[in-house]
């Protein structure tokens, strides 16, 4: 008998073209409406940004601040900082570069504020620079020190004959060179079907796995759900499973030795990624010296069962 579970947090309501709630990379696929952005969200926002986006924000913010203060120095009179060039571009560049020196507290000595107005603005800008770089330093530390899993999942699911029955499979590996210690995986199946009233509803099942926990993972792990008498997929043919509005939600946890603590990663599979009567090719082999070689490029590679 298939083990049906309560809603894990996704909701029972569905529709014909309902998208997955969790993306393949583990990010949320939920659109938030009427959500207010607060200052408390800034830290999370910058921590979760991709590295290239993070540095784009830093460079853009740094440039805009210097442009702003450069204009302010022009408005109060560039003569209070340095000798005027007699044209807009020259004076603006002098104001921009003086702002950069003040913001970073470099102070080469070639330009210096003269008068109350220029000194007041320069003092305020120096304080802004100190606070900004302190904030950026904290973000950099947070990004580097944040414990984060780095698991790579196969792009495909396979459905194939297995032992006396059939089985649903996918693979995972560690992107890092470290050994995953005591990895544990949990897989939830979501099936969206019409009820008696003609409305689409989700049903959730906790899938029984061949192995849901191992001691170490230095190479690759094939996750296997055998479609036996206790499987919710038992009553469906391969073609019906292929056309089914079904999704797998995967949660993996393990001890990451790089951070010295347990980390988590989630992922998802849509049955549209299903490949039938295929098997995964071996992803590791031994070289001439007897060392195990793990080929990351073969994680999703399959071949025919025949």
From TrEMBL:
Q: What are its GO biological-process terms?
A: potassium ion import across plasma membrane; regulation of monoatomic ion transmembrane transport
Q: Kindly list the GO CC terms recorded for this protein.
A: monoatomic ion channel complex; plasma membrane
Which segments constitute the Inward rectifier potassium channel C-terminal domain?
A: 151-302
Going by the UniProt record, its keywords in alphabetical order are: Ion channel, Ion transport, Membrane, Potassium, Potassium transport, Transmembrane, Transmembrane helix, Transport, Voltage-gated channel
Leader sequence segment: none
What is a single molecular function from GO for this protein? inward rectifier potassium channel activity
All copies of the Potassium channel domain together span 67-140
Compartment(s) of residence = Membrane
Q: Name one Pfam family in it.
A: IRK_C
Coarse class of the protein's main subcellular location? membrane
Membrane topology of the entry: Multi-pass membrane protein
This protein is called what?
Inward rectifier potassium channel
């Amino acid at each position: 008998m298939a083990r049906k579970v309560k809603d894990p947090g996704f909701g029972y309501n569905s529709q014909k073209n309902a998208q997955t709630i969790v993306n393949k990379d583990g990010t949320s696929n939920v659109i938030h409406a009427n959500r207010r952005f607060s200052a408390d969200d800034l830290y999370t926002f910058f921590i979760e940004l991709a590295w290239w986006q993070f540095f784009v924000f830093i460079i853009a913010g740094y440039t805009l601040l210097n442009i702003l203060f450069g204009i302010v120095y022009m408005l109060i009179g560039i003569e209070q900082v340095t000798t005027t060039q007699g044209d807009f571009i020259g004076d603006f560049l002098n104001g921009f570069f003086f702002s950069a020196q003040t913001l970073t507290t470099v102070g080469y000595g070639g330009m210096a504020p003269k008068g109350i107005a220029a000194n007041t603005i320069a003092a305020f800008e120096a304080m802004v620079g100190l606070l900004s770089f302190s904030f950026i330093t904290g973000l950099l530390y947070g990004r580097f020190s944040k414990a984060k899993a780095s698991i790579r999942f196969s792009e495909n699911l396979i459905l194939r004959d297995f032992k006396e029955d059939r089985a649903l499979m996918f693979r995972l590996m560690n992107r890092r060179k470290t050994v995953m210690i005591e990895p544990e995986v949990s897989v939830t199946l979501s099936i969206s079907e019409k009820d008696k009233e003609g409305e689409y509803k989700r049903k959730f099942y906790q899938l029984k796995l061949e192995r849901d926990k191992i001691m170490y993972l230095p190479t690759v792990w094939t996750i296997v759900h055998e479609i036996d008498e206790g499987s919710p997929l038992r009553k469906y043919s391969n073609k019906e499973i292929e056309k089914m509005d079904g999704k797998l939600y995967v949660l993996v946890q393990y001890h990451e030795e790089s951070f010295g603590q347990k980390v988590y990663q989630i992922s998802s599979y849509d049955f549209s990624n299903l490949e039938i009567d295929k098997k995964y090719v071996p992803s590791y082999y031994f070289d001439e010296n007897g060392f195990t070689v793990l080929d990351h490029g073969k994680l999703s590679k399959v071949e025919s069962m025949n």
